[in-house]
Amino acid sequence: MLARAARGTGALLLRGSTQASGRAPRRTSSGLPRNTVVLFVPQQEAWVVERMGRFHRILEPGLNILIPVLDRIRYVQSLKEIVINVPEQSAVTLDNVTLQIDGVLYLRIMDPYKASYGVEDPEYAVTQLAQTTMRSELGKLSLDKVFRERESLNASIVDAINQAADCWGIRCLRYEIKDIHVPPRVKESMQMQVEAERRKRATVLESEGTRESAINVAEGKKQAQILASEAEKAEQINQAAGEASAVLAKAKAKAEAIRILAAALTQHNGDAAASLTVAEQYVSAFSKLAKDSNTILLPSNPGDVTSMVAQAMGVYGALTKAPVPGAQDSVSSGSSRDVQGTDASLDEEFDRVKLS
C-alpha cells in the first residue's frame, strides 16, 4: 500500500515537473493555472492561493509546492506597472464650456491581497475613479486655466485616486491628459483672442519703440544744447579775456604815451610843440565837417586858427595850474558866469548857422 502511494506521488511529481518545464504552466478555461503540486511562479507575479475556499497564502516567484484538491490558485496579480487608457468623456469647466477629454493612467499593485479581495475589478474601478475625479477637477477650473495648469490638474487627479485606492492595494503613479477637444465655436473664439492679443503686443511694442526713439532724440537735443551753451560760454569767456587784455594793453600804451608827452612838454619849446599839435588836430577836424551830419556848430571866426590855438593853450594852462586856497568860491562863480556866457554865444552861433 505504501508502495502504491509512493508510485502515485512520484507520478504526480513527474506530471507537475513535466507541465512546469515549459515557459508557463497550463491554465484552465478561466485563465488561472492549475494546481500541479509543483509550481513555478514567474517573476513580478503574485499568485493568491485559497485552501478549502479560504485565503491561505501568496506564492512568491520561484518553486512552490501545493496540496492537490485542497489548495486552489484563486487570483493571479501582476506586480508590473500597468498602463490603462481612460476613455474619452465630456466635462464642463467653471465657465460652462463643454470639453471632450481623455487620458492615460499608470498604476501598480502594491498589495496583492487587497487587490484581490478589496475590489472586484481593480482596473475598472480605478478607471471609473479617474473619470469622475477628472470631471470634478475640471469643474473647478476655467477654460484658460485648463490649458495653463495641466500639470497641477494631473497631480490633483493622482492624489485623489491614491486616497481612494489605498484600500484596494493599488497605487497610481501618474496620470497624463492626452487630448482636450473644445467645441468649434469656442475654438474660433480662442483663435480670435490669440490674434487680438498678438496685435495688442505688436501695438505695445511699436509704441514702446516710438517712445524710446523720442526719448533718444530729446536726449540728443538736450546734450547738443548743453554742449552749445558750454561752447558759447567758453567763447564769451575767451572774448572777454581778450577784450580785457586789449583794454589793459591800450591803457598801458596810453599811459606810456601820456608819460612821454608830459616829459616832452617839460622840455625846451614844449609849448610850441603842443601848439603845433593842436593846430594840426584843428585843421584835421575842420576838414571832416558836414560829412556825417547836416547840422554843424561853427565858431564865430572859423578861419582864425591862431585864436583857436591860443584858446586851447589857455585851457591847457588853466588845467595845469594848481588851485589857490580861499579862491574856490570866486572861481566857481566865475566859472558859472563863463559857462553861461559860453552857452549864450553857442546859441547865437547855432542860430546863425541855421540862417545861413
From TrEMBL:
SMART domains: PHB (SM00244). The keyword Mitochondrion applies. Residues 36-194 form the Band domain. Signal peptide: none annotated. GO terms for biological process: CD4-positive, alpha-beta T cell activation; intracellular calcium ion homeostasis; lipid localization; mitochondrial protein processing; mitochondrion organization; positive regulation of interleukin-2 production; protein complex oligomerization; proton motive force-driven mitochondrial ATP synthesis. It is a lipid-anchor. Keywords: Mitochondrion. It comes from the Eukaryota. Its main location: mitochondrion. GO terms for molecular function: cardiolipin binding; GTPase binding; T cell receptor binding. Residues 329-343 have a biased composition (Polar residues). Pfam families: Band_7 (PF01145), Band_7_C (PF16200). InterPro entries: Band7/mec-2_domain, Band_7, Band_7/SPFH_dom_sf, STML2-like_C, Stomatin_HflK_fam. GO terms for cellular component: actin cytoskeleton; immunological synapse; membrane raft; mitochondrial inner membrane; mitochondrial intermembrane space; mitochondrion. It is found in: Mitochondrion inner membrane. Residues 325-356 are annotated as: Disordered. Belongs to the band 7/mec-2 family. Mitochondrial protein that probably regulates the biogenesis and the activity of mitochondria. Stimulates cardiolipin biosynthesis, binds cardiolipin-enriched membranes where it recruits and stabilizes some proteins including prohibitin and may therefore act in the organization of functional microdomains in mitochondrial membranes. Through regulation of the mitochondrial function may play a role into several biological processes including cell migration, cell proliferation, T-cell activation, calcium homeostasis and cellular response to stress. This is Stomatin-like protein 2, mitochondrial. The gene is STOML2.
